[in-house]
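Researcher: Please predict.
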Amino acid sequence: MRARERHALLLALLLVPSRAAAEPAPREPAPDGLGTVVRGKRNRPKDESAAQTTIPGAVLRASPRPSLLEAVAREAPWVQVSSRGAGLHGIAEGSSGAIRMRGLGGSPNTQVLVVQDGVPDYQGIFGHPLPDTCLPDLLESVEVIPGGDSVLYGTNALGGVLELRSRWRREPGVEAHLKAGYGSFATSLLQPTALARVGRWDVAASFHDQRSDGHRRGAGGVLDAGQLGARVTLGSWGRLTVRGRLAHLSGWDPGPVTHPALDHAFDALRGGGAVTLEHFHDRLSGRVILHASVGRHELYDGFRGVDVSDGASVEERFRPHRTLELLGGLAFDHLDGSVRNRISGAIQTVSPLVTVAPYQQASWRPLRRWLLIAGARQVLSPTYGAVLLYKVGSTFAPWRGAQLRVRYATSFRQPTIRERYLPYPVANPDLRPERAASLEGGLRQRAGRHLEGELTLFRTDARDLIKTFGVWPAAEVINIDRVSFWGLEGAVRLRALGPFAVRLGGTALRVGRYTKQNPSARLEGELAFERGPLHASLGVTWVSGLYMNNYGRDPLGDLFQLDLETRARLPRFHVDLFLVLRNLTNRENAFLAGYPLPRLHAFGGLEVHL
C-alpha cells in the first residue's frame, strides 16, 4: 500500500460519521479464568486506539512459564520471546530473552521498550533491560502495546511497549505470600512477598531467589533480586511514592551444542530507584518522576562495563470538558558509562547520550461512540538534532459489543552507546536513528458473557534500521534503507462454559528479507478447567518460520510444545499446591540454533497466603 493510499484510508476512517446512540461504548470485562483482559480501556487511559492487551499480575505469577517475559508471550502471542529453557536467560547469551513485536525487536531488546510505573528500564550502554530482572512478584498488571508509541514513551518504543504497573494492597491490613518450588535440573525458587496498608502508608516488599543447574552442562545460573516500595497519601490532593530494586545475576553461557563451553561465566549487578510525586484535582492531575539506575556487567571475555541511566519527567492531564482530555509532558533522559577490558587493561572512551522531549496528546469524544486521539513528541538531542514524532487514531462502536480501531503512529530509536562506540563486536559512530511508521486497524466483538474475539491488521514501514553484517572482526554495523512488515493478529476467548474456558490467539507475519528470528506464524492456546479447589490448564505453543539469519537462511524446524499446569487450593490451610509439566510430548525444540530447549521436565511447589 502506497503512502498516499494509507493516508487516504486513515483520513476516511477518522471521518466516518457515527450515529448518536443512547448506549455507551462497551466496558472492559473483568478478567476471565484464563486471565487475559482483552485490548481496550486501561485503569490509566493513554491511547485507546492502540492494540492493547492487559495481563493481570496474578495470571503472570501463576504462569507455568519460567520467566515473566515468556509468561507475557503466552498471554499475548503477538509477542515473540526467545528462550534457552528451564530457568534464566542470562546476559543475552545465545540471544535468549530477546523480545520481538511485528518484525521489530531482537537482541539486544532495543526496539521494544520495557517501562515500569513511567520509568524506562534499560541499561545505559546496551539500551535494553536484563530480562531476568523483570519479575512478577509485585506487579498489578502488564500492558502490551504492539506497534510502538514513541509519542508517549520516547526512544526504544519502536516495535512495541511492555508497561509494568506495580501492585499495592487495596484494603487496610497486612498480607504475606510465600512461593517455593523445586524441579528438574535442580531448579529452585524462593519468593517471599509482603504488602501492607496502614493509615496513609502503603508498603510492598519482595525477595526473589532463583537457581538452576540448567538442562545442559554449564547452563546454570543464580538470580537474587529484591524490591521495596513505599508510598504515602498526602491528604486528598496527592501521593508520594519511593521504589527501589537491586538484582544480582550470575551464571554461564554453555555455547551451542556443536561447540560447548564450560567456562563462559557472566556476572551482573544492577540497582536503581525512582521517586514519584502525584497530585489529583477534579479536572487537573499529574506527576513528577525522578529515576536512576546503575549496573556493572562482567563477561568471560574480559569485558567490564559500568553504566548509568537516569532522567526525569513531568506530566499533566487536564479535562476541560467531559468529552475532552489533554495530556502534556516533558521528559529528560541521560545515558552514560565506562568500559574496560580486565585482561588487557584497555579502556574504551564513550560519549553520553542526552535527550529532552516535550510531548502532547489530546483525546476527544465528539459522540458517545466515537473517540479521536492525536499526539506529538518533539525529541531534542545534541547528537541528532530535532526529531518530530506524531500519531492519530480513532475508535468507533458501530453496534452492541463491538469496537473498531484505526491508528497511525511514528516512532524512533536512537543508536545505543554500544552500537556507536564499543567494538563488541563492532561499532559505527555515524549511525542514524531508526524510524518506523505503523498503520493498524482492528475489530473487537463481545457476544454476551461467553464469547469474545478480536482481529488486527497492521503494516510497519521502517527506515534506517541498524543491522550487523558479516562476522567479527570483519563485521560492520550500518543503517539499511527501507523495510516493511505486515500481518495480522487475532484471538478468540470462550468463557464460563461450565467448568471450562478456552483461549486461542496468534499472529501471522510477513517480514520480507529480514527474517532473522522473526516467525512467520505463532499460535498460543489454552484449555482451562476449574471445579471447586481444583484447577488445571493445558497450554499449547506453535511457532513456525524461524530463521537464524536474514534472507531466509539457516531455517529452524517448527516449535511445538504442550504444558500442563495443575493446582489444588486449600483455603483452610491458606496453601496452594501446584505442579507444572513442560514439553509433554518430549519433543526437541529450539528458538536458537545450537541451544535446544529441555525435553519433558517438571516443576512443583506450594504457595502460602497469610
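Model: The longest strand covers residues 303-321.
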